[in-house]
Predict the 3D structure of the following.
Amino acid sequence: MAGTPPAYTTPDPDLRELIAARPHLSMHAADGLVMEDVPLAAVADALGTPCWVYAAGAIRGRYRALDGAFRDAALPVRIHYAVKANDHPAVLRVLAAEGAGADVVSGGELRRALDAGMRAEAIVFSGVGKTDDELRAALGAGIGQINAESAEEVDRIAAVAAAEGRVARVALRVNPDVDAATHTKIATGRAGDKFGIAWGEVPALYARLAALPGLAPAGLAVHVGSQIGTMQPYRAAYGRVAGLVRALREAGLAVPAVDCGGGLGIAYRDEPVALPAALAAVIGQTLGGLGLRLAVEPGRWLVAQAGVLLAGVIQEKHSGGGRFVVLDAAMNDLVRPAMYDAWHGIVPLAAADAAQPVTAAAVVGPVCESSDVFAHARALPPLAPGARVAILDAGAYGAVMSSTYNARPLAAIALVDGGRWATVRPRQRLEALWAADTLPDWLADGP
Ligand SMILES: *Cc1c(COP(=O)(O)O)cnc(C)c1O
């Protein structure tokens, strides 16, 4: 059944522990839950709920911590932010200003990255199915690299490049046959997954790629999955890729770069997480001595903790001995609990609410699906109608995965930056949901 709670063997972190583990959040007697220096109640008052709030300072801090880890290890690793985690232009701007490049997986993301000021040479195009139109746009923009995922795609890139009179820098995304021990919906590096090129087929394809006119071999790429908590899958994958780099070079082929992928996990609850220094160490030990240009493609690690989804309590419902807190946010806003059984911290915005004794409650949205459940058996204080909560760590794979299911408009978004904040997307107007829908002429006259 969708939404079955994962079996945790330890108690949930309490409200105080959740806040303490997130440096950009704090609880104040008068202001309640504060993000950087902005009381979240003020944002909820202005925008209404549900709404997303992103912390620019927290995003910068994460970028600098990761970049700093590579610098400390004296590794030439470029950071290409995986735009699919959160493609809001304000987020892209903040990261572009830090010097980030981008990893994009569609023509739409390519446009967003370029419009936000990402340099074309610092953009990598990944993904298992790029259309000819998307490839033309990428070559036209002069992006730095295309990661090809099949022999068929290499041929298609060559054809498009020839037709456009351009040279495409192409890396091969290899499937390392490594199990990232993450949720099966976000594991991408196992032999049967749809991603990447089977290990044994890489050498011949790389040689062909190097010989095709219009293509410049850019090296190898590997991405084993998402929300990875230990270094073991990385170490295994990069070790295998290093062996492949050596073998290709022994065959006389130039392998200038390796793209190490993304996937670094965060602690949504209290799970063990890998630190940037550990990733830098593993990259250094496996690929560091090969004279390669290196890159990583983190999405979640940079932006997840920087975002919250603010929701209002419609009412509590008591039924069959169960306690349900019914929110005005739902799975159409944040689908991760329904889709991945994901655990998200939930914290009241008001200090007075947060100080009350807690009892277990299911936290649910109003959508007509039994999987519209944000949390099962969560220890929460009593929450009266109109009380508000923050659903934590919603900055990655949050708003980007929203739908308008149940005719629910897309929620508003605000950006906090120190003591400043601004609305960066108003709540979608209801009429905008159906503005593009039309009737065929034989139904246009009404019943
Ligand atoms: C999704 C994806 C990423 C980012 O994954 P995170 O888990 O958000 O770091 C990076 N590279 C590729 C190819 C991806 O598909």
The chain is about 30% helix and 25% strand. The first strand starts at residue 25 and ends at 28. The pocket of pyridoxal-5'-phosphate is lined by residues 82, 84-85, 103, 126, 223, 226, 261-264, 297-301, 396 (CB under 6 Å). The CA atoms of residues 319 and 325 lie 11 Å apart.
